[in-house]
């Protein structure tokens, strides 16, 4: 596709960036709706988290295959099909009446969404001349930031005004407009979709990938509630995960036409970078998941307040992303940026671990600005470093795998946060309940005060004591979850602390501006 000029170029920018924002918006818009979904669907927050993780799993599965699927079907056809699939799945998500029906359609939505994010960047880059692709990278980087930023705020507004189903319906008009603009303004690449007969589909690899990742995620999500390996179901699904993952790795390394090129793991720099991508994804998604739940469950924020409190600090990334992208394009070393990003994330986790139940929206601003700076400093340099040791022809596979690992880290992080917070809440509750004894004069005094308060407010002296105990029990549960979420923030810091010493293993020779431009182009075409 030749570079565009004038009006057509701006239409392509609007179309592709809007599609990417929409896909990323749906990764966070659900976060503020978990409480309402749980109540409406008769489920726990822990079970409703599947609505987030099913979307992430679908992204993880489809992202490494987008290059292959785009080549097989033709990029424009694949892009349009994914757009329509995303819109249809969005409708059925909003119309779902049961949890597992919603989880299924979120998975289908994630299959379509993975292509929207990936292919949008390639189409956008093709619309610009090589010398202007730094501008394209900056525009797309702002879209990457705005999507997750606007998600909680938009979701909160919709929840307060309508109901949770509308957070999915809002995608439909955007899908319709983007589909029409794509049909009119986005051209097919020369020879696009004409090699279908020459391409062999790795059906076995695809099935093993789905089985391995899907089973592993199920174990992480349900292991805690099913008492881990005391459950025959968990044992069975764990075996499926082991067989699927090992089988996938073996098959992809031995087949002539792999759906995912795993041979690039022989490069030391790339192999080490996957560890950083995994922890990076874990930190990003976990922090975005825990914060809205904490401030709604403990601090009493409405969904809209929870979302709005994220907007202002995250907008800082809109400024930082283009600056860092320009520095990367000029051949600057990514190591200093990565070290700074990791340090900001470590500080963010421990700083967030000092939050109190009476903090307001603006009190969280310094914590969230640290997270935003950490994201900005870490993400683009990490993508560049991941492919620094690869040959140009290996760039597409390397970047696709890096994206997959980051999404996988996010899916694992949400499951880990759920299990960890549940365990820590149970422990904190046990510790707090130890003080609720009739031998404790302070406890007796509090019960007496609560009982008098109940009598004064209800006039029911007979049941006042029982209501006072229930009130105190609710306060203990709230305090237990509050302490558990603070522990989860600290856990994020611990992961990044463990990662920091390994950053210097990623050191490579200085990248020339020409090599940096080649990496940027490959990053677009690999999506």
Automatic annotation (TrEMBL):
Membrane-topology annotation of the record: Multi-pass membrane protein
Main location: membrane
Lineage of source species: Bacteria, Pseudomonadati, Bacteroidota, Cytophagia, Cytophagales
NCBIfam families: efflux_EmrB
Protein name: DHA2 family efflux MFS transporter permease subunit
Residues passing through the membrane, by range: 7-29, 49-70, 77-100, 106-128, 135-155, 167-187, 199-220, 232-250, 270-294, 306-325, 337-354, 488-506
InterPro entries: EmrB-like (IPR004638), MFS (IPR011701), MFS_dom (IPR020846), MFS_trans_sf (IPR036259)
Keyword Ligase in record: no
Organism this protein belongs to: Arcicella aquatica
PANTHER family (UniProt xref): MAJOR FACILITATOR SUPERFAMILY, MULTIDRUG EXPORT PROTEIN EMRB-RELATED
Keywords: Cell membrane, Membrane, Transmembrane, Transmembrane helix, Transport
Keyword Cell membrane among record annotations: yes
All copies of domain Major facilitator superfamily (MFS) profile, residue ranges: 12-511
Subcellular location: Cell membrane
Highest taxon in the source lineage: Bacteria
